[in-house]
Design a protein that fits this description.
Blueprint (H helix, E strand, L loop, with lengths): L2 H6 L16 H8 L3 H8 L16 E3 L3 E10 L4 E8 L7 E4 L3 E5 L13 E3 L15 E5 L11 E6 L8 E14 L4 E6 L8 E6 L7 E3 L9 E4 L3 E13 L3 E4 L3 E7 L16 H7 L5 H4 L2 E6 L17 E6 L7 E7 L2 E8 L3 E6 L6 E9 L12 E2 L3 E3 L5 E4 L30 E10 L2 E8 L6 E8 L13 E2 L4 E7 L8 E8 L5 E2 L1 E6 L7 E7 L1 E2 L5 E2 L32 E6 L57 E2 L5 E2 L3 E2 L2 E4 L2 E10 L2 E8 L9 E3 L4 E5 L4 E3 L18 E5 L8 E6 L8 E15 L4 E7 L2 E7 L4 E6 L4 E3 L1 E4 L3 E13 L4 E3 L3 E7 L1 H5 L3 H4 L14 E5 L17 E3 L7 E3 L48 E5 L3 E2 L31
Parallel strand pairs: 1-5, 2-8, 5-16, 15-36, 41-45, 42-48, 45-57
Antiparallel strand pairs: 2-3, 3-4, 6-7, 7-13, 9-12, 9-14, 10-11, 10-13, 14-15, 14-16, 17-18, 17-25, 18-21, 19-20, 19-22, 22-23, 22-24, 26-27, 26-34, 27-30, 28-29, 28-31, 31-33, 32-35, 34-37, 38-39, 40-41, 42-43, 43-44, 46-47, 47-54, 48-53, 49-52, 49-55, 49-58, 50-51, 50-54, 52-61, 55-56, 55-57, ...
Length: about 1000
């Protein structure tokens, strides 16, 4: 026997035939009632057992896709929250499932673009990452974005649009992590390594009570990085909680979600676990002769292939766990544990089993339970085995042996850093807090709020507000209170100059205190130090559990059960605040020449005239479905008010289109009965309380002045040179949500790509733009910008290579009215080309355009323009849908010289389908109970302005679309862009580039 084996030898133990693990009273009680026959059956020959059966086999496995879990829904009948998992596990479309019947699996995943690991994160030396571990430490990761696929999982959390925030104190409701049971620590955050020191925004944590809670917005969802220090099975207990306006606690029941980190994928089922418990398999197996079995369990650094091309990224972080037996015909199941928590089940074939796993940078104790397959003649008399603990240390090899006998049953060793959140209500000993704004140098500043009582829990919000808009800021502050302190670091942009900086402190529902708002600076000056004082408002309402309201009528109604409330007050009730003081800062600041001040509106040569929407070029489309899916109609007309002569203004509309000024929106594709359709999935809650799919033709996106941005030095990526020189002003809709702005994306997640040959293509063709305007759409990743649409080069098509839901930055260089022809196209598996009917997207950019009564009056028409010569308007007609300029297509009305280096002829406008074809449905169920299948949109807590979060496109690549012109106002058109318009939860995937 080797000296190593001698040092590891333990006293051989003799385990009885029926093994009952310690600390399992339920199992012991169950065993006491077993009949003698049952005991004999367990001790003797066992029935055939599955080769591998993890504890979550049979559950609904949510992985390799878009997952919102937990997502809070409102149960109107019971007057409380219900937590669900919204995902697409069966690839039949997104739906909602009871949280405790699901399991999130984080396996291995790699980018299809460059092969990079998407399941590991190795920490850099940024001080902001210290809460995760030491520099160089590698963590298991569910990424906030994936490139070219959705492996391993694309997860976040969120809330339904129907949550009645008007019933809650200060409109506040939050999701709490009550506890985490697992082999390591869990963290949720957003991370952009290129934006230090504002590179990390924490969300939730298993180890810090201050980060056990995340402030939600109704209709919101987040996409964030989730990391784990060790692989294994984690059981996370959540709740969503609010306090009613009369002071009562409203809470969901504690709900458990399993995160299976690493290991083999659990077997998909209907939510009912089907696994035979490991202890039952063990008790049913023969005792055998462990000395003769010569089982060995080993762990060692992963052996890389001699051919580097066969190794994958992060393979050097793996360890190989190996089981061997003397019997080379042995079959059975090896169950691995990490610190006593389930890791994976492995089939043992021909006497061996091997699993390569990223065990992390922290040591742990591995253990295995082997049960032979007694239905196999070569394994019927083989011995079961509980291995002794096998110590894992990175870079080292260790083994344990069966002739040392059985070890003790795996015992869970929780990570000592994890904490349990108390749900007890608390009255602060002091309501006071101090606010400071301190320049950090290099163009960054930090807002800090420090409470006198360190036990206060809550959330920091607020931001920089334009003098004429007290509701929606240019930048959303975002942070949680930990040990009485909340901090937020931001890039101190020049266009905050002259705004009002207000800090809103929102209390957690468990706190017996209400929100307050403190104005830190009435006329903010970047690079200046400020101090201010504030105080929470004491609660006077009774504190008790919320009673259940009377049951509502479960019959369907044309009206939503919960009427959407107005936005929460920008100024919640507050205690008097002392006047803020400003102090000159000695910290270096960015000079005006480096970051120019934003003009009142982006510079334009003139306010050009815009005609009524031009007819759109119809795409070659498939015959209309015999029974098309119904779409939500445009809102009914409201009483009109006088407007410009010849026009009547209708509140909330422009030319009969309903305005959507904020919230989550998706240009959605559906494929049914070989017919492709396009519609707008509207999660904004402005028109309907429910998430609804409606025609693009029925709405107009209105973009406020809060969308104004400037191209700064940090946006120097040469791919963005189409924006013009540094200092160019533009309007931008970020790929991460910013409050008070539309958050548009595109969505193919309900399409079954197995019915297709190649990608689904989204066509966005500019038809009308202000004179000199440029439009574009792009995403940003660590590898740089990826331009998806560009009006200067004729990129009008996005190839979407797999089912996804993605967002990108939308850029409009000038204020005014924009019109786009929008449709989807694809190739069916049999080679048939299908196109959705064309719909026209309208976007009103800037206050003047957004407040107009009609598109014709949005920007006054030039009276000197010749008849039908719409001076200042770019009319750009598409060539063939999906691509290159070429011969006139069927249905084209005219042709024109191709623009932007294209050659040939292109079809021009020839009429637009008024309604198109869109798949419409409203979520929700009778009586207002939580809906079953429509996701909300948005990011919880808002975005972070110019912070520059990394992102990439949702399985998309851009393609030239052969823009052509009609001869009207021949002015060069170019797209504007920026690195990232807002920091926050990113929901986009890197593209795969295709040739045009």
């Amino acid at each position: 026997m080797s000296s190593q084996k001698q040092t590891q030898r333990r006293v051989t133990t003799h385990t009885p035939a029926l093994f009952i693990p310690g600390g399992k009273p339920a199992l012991r009680r169950a065993a006491a009632f077993l009949s003698a026959a049952a005991l004999l059956a367990l001790a003797g020959a066992a029935p055939s057992l599955p080769a591998a059966a993890g504890p979550d086999d049979g559950k609904i496995v949510t992985t390799k896709g878009h997952v919102d879990a937990p997502k809070a829904y409102w149960d109107e009948q019971n007057g409380t929250f219900v937590l669900m998992n919204e995902a697409n596990p069966y690839k039949t479309g997104a739906d909602t499932y009871e949280l405790d019947k699901t399991v999130n699996w984080v396996g291995k995943g790699y980018s299809t673009r460059d092969g990079k690991s998407q399941y590991t994160m190795t920490l850099g030396d940024s001080p902001s990452l210290a809460f995760l571990g030491e520099p160089g430490q590698t963590l298991y990761m569910a990424p906030h974005l994936t490139y070219g696929n959705q492996d391993p999982i694309w997860a976040g959390l969120g809330a339904s649009t129907k949550v009645p925030t008007e019933r809650f104190r200060d409109g506040v409701f939050a999701t709490d992590i009550l506890s985490v049971e697992g082999p390591g620590r869990m963290e949720l955050f957003r991370y952009n390594p290129d934006d230090a020191p504002a590179d990390v925004y924490r969300m939730l944590s298993s180890s810090s009570t201050g980060w056990h809670s995340w402030l939600l917005d109704k209709g919101s969802h987040t996409h964030n990085t989730t990391t784990f220090t060790r692989p294994g099975r984690y059981v996370v207990t959540y709740r969503t909680v609010a306090r009613s306006t009369d002071g009562r606690i409203i809470s969901s029941k504690p709900s458990k979600l399993v995160w299976q980190v690493g290991g083999m994928q659990p077997v998909l089922g209907d939510g009912t676990p089907t696994a035979v418990p490991t202890v039952d398999r063990y008790n049913a197996a023969p005792v055998g002769d462990l000395d003769a079995a010569k089982y060995v369990l080993s762990v060692a650094p992963h052996r890389l292939d001699a051919d580097p091309a066969k190794n994958k990224d992060a393979d050097d972080k793996l360890s190989d766990i190996t089981f061997t037996a003397a019997n080379k015909n042995l079959k059975g199941t090896l169950t691995l544990y990490n610190n006593g928590y389930f890791l994976t089940d492995l089939p043992v074939v021909n006497g061996t089993a091997t699993w390569s796993e990223m065990l992390g940078s922290e040591g742990s104790q591995l253990q295995a339970v082997f049960t032979p397959d007694t239905s196999d003649a070569n394994s019927a008399e083989a011995s079961r085995w509980i291995s002794h603990k096998l110590t894992y240390e990175p870079g080292k090899a260790e083994s344990v042996y069966s002739d040392d006998g059985n070890g003790s049953w795996p015992e869970e060793i929780p990570d000592q850093a994890n904490t349990v959140l108390s749900t007890q209500q608390y009255t602060p000993t002091s309501m006071d807090y101090d606010v400071t704004v301190t320049p950090n140098g290099n163009g960054f500043s930090t807002v800090e709020v420090r409470f006198k009582d360190p036990k206060v829990r809550g959330f920091m919000r607020g931001g920089f507000y334009a003098q004429d808009d007290p509701v929606y800021p240019y930048l959303d502050l975002e942070g949680s209170v930990e040990d009485g302190v909340a901090r937020f670091t931001f890039r101190d942009e020049s266009f905050y100059k002259g705004t009002a900086l207000r800090v809103k402190m929102l209390t957690h529902p468990d706190m017996n205190a209400s929100a307050s708002t403190t104005e830190v600076a009435a006329n903010y000056e970047p690079g200046t130090k400020y101090t201010a004082h504030g105080a929470l408002a004491p609660d006077s309402a009774p504190i008790s559990d919320a009673p259940k309201p009377a049951p509502v009528d479960p019959s369907p109604s044309a009206e939503p059960t919960v009427v959407p409330s107005a936005e929460p007050s920008a100024e919640p009730s507050e205690a008097p605040s002392e006047a803020p003081t400003a102090e000159p800062s000695t910290a270096p600041t960015t000079s005006p020449s480096e970051v120019p001040t934003v003009p009142a509106v982006p510079t334009a040569s003139a306010e050009p005239s815009v005609p009524a929407p031009a007819p759109s070029t119809p795409a070659p489309s498939s015959p209309a479905p015999a029974n098309p899916e119904p779409s939500s109609p445009a809102p009914s007309a409201q009483p009109s008010t006088p407007g410009t002569p010849g026009h009547q203004c209708v509140p909330g509309q422009i030319d009969g289109r309903a305005k959507i000024s904020k919230g989550h929106l998706d240009i959605q594709a559906t494929l049914k009965d070989r017919q492709l359709s396009v519609g707008l999935r509207d999660d904004s809650g402005i028109i309907d309380a429910d998430s609804t799919v409606r025609p693009l033709d029925s709405v107009v996106w209105t973009v406020s002045e809060n969308a104004r941005r400037v191209r700064t030095e940090r946006m120097a990526d040469e791919k963005l040179n189409f924006m013009g020189p540094v200092g160019t002003a533009f309007y931008g809709l970020p790929q991460t949500q910013q409050s008070g702005l539309p958050w548009p994306g595109y969505n193919t997640q309900d399409i079954d790509y197995s019915q297709l040959r190649g990608p689904v293509r989204l066509h966005v063709v500019p038809k009308v733009m202000p004179e000199g305007a440029r439009f574009g759409m792009f995403t940003e990743s660590l590898n740089g910008a990826d331009v998806l649409l560009d009006s200067t080069t004729g990129k009008t098509t996005i190839d979407i290579d797999y089912a996804t839901h993605a967002h990108a930055n939308w850029v409009f260089s000038e204020p005014g009215q924009y019109m786009f022809d929008v449709h989807y196209s694809a190739t069916l598996a049999d080679g048939t080309e299908v196109n959705s009917p064309v719909q026209q997207l309208a976007v009103a950019v800037g206050k003047k355009a957004s407040d107009a009564c009609s598109f014709e009056t949005a920007v006054p028409k030039d009276p000197n323009a010749a008849k039908d010569d719409f001076s200042g308007v770019r009319r750009v007609d598409s060539a063939t849908p999906g691509g290159t300029a070429g011969a006139n297509q069927p249905g084209s009305a005219q042709s024109g010289a191709a623009q932007g280096g294209q050659s040939g002829q292109a079809g021009a406008a020839g009429g637009v389908n008024a309604q198109g074809s869109s798949d419409g449905s409203a979520d929700g169920s009778a009586g207002g109970v939580y809906p079953g299948g429509i996701s909300g949109g948005g990011t919880g807590g808002g975005s972070l302005g110019q912070s520059g979060v990394s992102a990439a496109s949702g399985g998309a690549s851009s393609q030239q679309g052969g823009l052509a012109r009609t001869g009207f106002g021949a002015v060069s058109v170019a797209v504007g862009g920026a690195l990232v318009l807002g920091a926050g939860t990113v929901m986009v995937l890197r593209s795969r580039r295709r040739a045009s």
